[in-house]
Amino acid sequence: MTLRKYLVILSVVFFGSVGDAFLARGMKHAGAIDIHHLSRVFSALANPYVILGIFFLLAFMSSYMTALSFADLTYVLPATAISYVVMVLLSIFWLHEHVSPQRWVGVAFIVIGVGVVAGGPSRTEHLAAHVPASALKERV
Amino acid sequence: MRAFYTWLCIFITVCTAAAGDVLVALAMRRIGDLGEIRRRYGFFAIILRVSSSGVLFGGVFFMAIAFFSNLIGLSWADLSVVGPASAALTFVTNALGARFFLHENVDRRRWLATIFVCLGVLLLTWS
After folding, report:
1. Phi, psi of A122 (to 5 degrees)
2. What is the CA radius of gyration of chain A?
3. Which residues of A touch B117 (CB under 8 A)?
4. In chain B, which residues have their Cβ closer than 8 Å to the Cβ of A5?
5. Do A113 and B98 touch (CB under 8 A)?
6. Inter-chain contact B102–A73, Cβ cutoff 8 Å?
7. What percent of chain B is helix, strand and coil (3-state, nearest 5)?
8. Residues A19 and A67 sit within 8 Å (Cβ to Cβ)
9. Do residues A34 and B5 touch, judged by C-beta distance below 8 A?
10. Beta-carbon count within 10 A of B61 CB
């Protein structure tokens, strides 16, 4: 993994978490959508927070596609889960919210999960598909 | 009844998000490393290859369904219910999709990471 690839993973984290925060805030402003009036979901698209959220999620999508072009799906998804930790840190330092011990345990679990997957290779199926078994044994 | 619709929304979100992720991952694997393509052939080669991938558009279609289903779910229930439930379940269904459809080598390390992240997300948001 090069520095550029780590930056791509970080941009997935940044755009995804900020986009989700804008969307959640926008949908709270828009109010509940009735099951018989599902088309009202389109009226929520006029909300400025939802529009901002969609712009951030478009940036998320392009960085996510770039990440998937060089890494496995099962590498990218756990690695970008660090965005949940970013949200907790934002809630502490920006919104001055109280974070319970249960949430700190959750943060610890995510950090361990990200650390476990980040320590391995970003692409695995090429090793299995194109390298002879004898060569694989030599690498190990 | 609202709880039923909320969980129906979560179910639709999880299934369509996993289908979208698997299809987009498949398309990007076929297209190749975007950084490498840009270096060799320029930025417009990326636009051309990405815009001509039918599998990618299929993935984006499923992601769009997941997006709207998630929006509807968020309007019915709290983020603390919809967020962790759909995120944690999507991690597991994605790992299964990657294993069986993309034939990724989901080894013990990656299953362990997926389980840790799932538990972490549940603890973090389901309080």
Report:
1. -80, -25
2. 19
3. 77-78, 81, 109-110, 113-114
4. 35
5. no
6. yes
7. 85, 0, 15
8. no
9. no
10. 14
Contact, A74 vs B106, CB < 8 A? yes
Cα(A11)–Cα(B46) distance, integer angstroms: 19
Contact B22, A73 (CB under 8 A): yes
pLDDT tens-digit readout, B68-122: 888 788 777 766 667 777 877 888 888 889 888 888 888 888 888 888 888 888 8
| A41 φ/ψ angles, rounded to the nearest 5 degrees | -60, -30
DSSP secondary-structure letter at B91?
H
Counting every residue written for chain B, the total comes to: 127
Q: How many residues does chain A have?
A: 140
The residue among A122, A116, A113 whose CA lies nearest residue A2 is A122
Give yes or no for a contact between B37 and B113, defined as CB atoms under 8 angstroms apart. no
Contact B119 A106 (CB under 8 A): yes
Closest by CA position to B7, among listed B81, B100, B93, B99: B81
pTM as predicted: 0.76
- Subunit contact A125:B119, Cβ cutoff 8 A: no
Q: Are B2 and B76 in contact (CB under 8 A)?
A: yes
Query: How confident is residue A56, by pLDDT bands cut at 50, 70 and 90?
Result: very high
Closest CA to A107 of A89, A119, A123: A89
Cα(B108)–Cα(A13) distance, integer angstroms: 24
| Whether the Cβ atoms of residue B99 and residue A125 lie closer than 8 Å to each other | no
The rounded distance, in Å, linking the Cα atoms of A24 and A97 is: 17
Distance CA B43, CA B37 (A): 8
- Note the ipTM here: 0.81
